[in-house]
Write a structure and sequence with these properties.
- With 108 residues, the chain is mainly β.
- Helix content is 14%, strand content 48%.
- The protein contains one helix and six strands, in the order αββββββ.
- It has a six-stranded antiparallel sheet with strand order 1-2-3-4-5-6, with helices on one face.
- The chain is elongated.
Amino acid sequence: MTLPRSIFGICLLLVLAECTAYIANESRPQVLQYEMETANMPNSYNFHYDASDGSSRTEKGAILNPGTKDSALDVAGAVRWYDDKGHLYEMTYKAGKRGYRTIIKKLS
């Protein structure tokens, strides 16, 4: 079960890393709300945050079939952001045994 925990650790590091790009002469967005549920770690987690620039991210992850040779990390989430013209976009993603899939939509 070393591999799924390694993948989980990498995912957790990505969560903690800065995810919103910014222009050098603008202030960095601030996190307004952050929630993380880790009671079932290392088997599952979920988190959500909202930032001052209107961006947000939600993610849920779980190890399927823990303790077996078929164990795998399954992750699903969504990221929302505004472009420089004020249009809202959303990217939903899913990662698991079948690979990594994303869908990006312009919402407004």
